[in-house]
Amino acid sequence: MMAAYLAGDNPPHPSATGSDQPELRMKIEKDRVVRFHYTVAEQGQEPIESSRDRDPLAILIGHGNIIPGLENAMMDKEAGASFDVDVKATDAYGERREGLTQRVPKKHFGTTKLIPGQQVVLQTNFGPRAVTVQKVGMSVVDVDLNHPMAGKDLHFSVEIVDVREAAAEELEHGHVHGDGGHQH
User: Fold this and answer.
1) 51, 35 in Cβ contact below 8 A?
2) 170 vs 182: CA distance, rounded Å
3) pTM for this structure?
4) Which residues are bridge partners to 133 per DSSP?
């Protein structure tokens, strides 16, 4: 039996009355942490990558942690939401830039056997960078510095697992800590 309340008074919160009405879910917005699963494909192609066989990805919204087109598509969604979105190259990894190549001494690749078309991670002064091998010489390697997905329109299937407020330390650092995020 529901408790009576006087007209003009606010009714008690549903959880106080044992109601099974759904709670309001937190929406995705700037400075919130989102954990999600995704599958990505070049538009019209088979999937390239998916998080479905591992833990969800965790990101801090509004801090440049994912491509802008995907982040914009997530805004105002809630935990449990599933959606598909097409992201143009300009809102993903950018357009391909011709001439963005570099000749690198072979020693920087260690003992990795290199073949043209192979994607490898090269350690640079600015941190790790994905590059594509173009040509392998005796002592040098020509690499394409464009992101491997540059110039490609992408299709994402996304499932939002949960949304929470970011901790002060996460906001200060600009990325998620802990489950699914960065470990210091």
Assistant:
1) no
2) 9
3) 0.74
4) 143
| Percent helix, percent strand, percent coil in the chain, to nearest 5 | 15, 35, 50
> C-alpha angle with apex 68: 74 to 171, nearest 5 degrees?
75
**Exposure b/e, 79-118, CB count within 10 A at least 16 = b:** bebeeeeebebebbbeeeeeeebeebeeeebeeeeeeeee
DSSP code of residue 43: T
Q: What is the pLDDT along the chain (184 residues), one digit of tens a residue?
A: 344 434 444 444 444 444 454 556 899 999 999 999 999 999 999 999 999 999 999 999 999 999 999 999 999 999 999 999 999 999 999 999 999 999 999 999 888 899 999 999 888 888 888 899 999 999 999 999 998 899 999 999 999 999 999 999 999 999 998 765 555 4
115: tokens are 């073949």
Q: Is 159 helix (H, G, I), strand (E, B) or coil?
A: strand
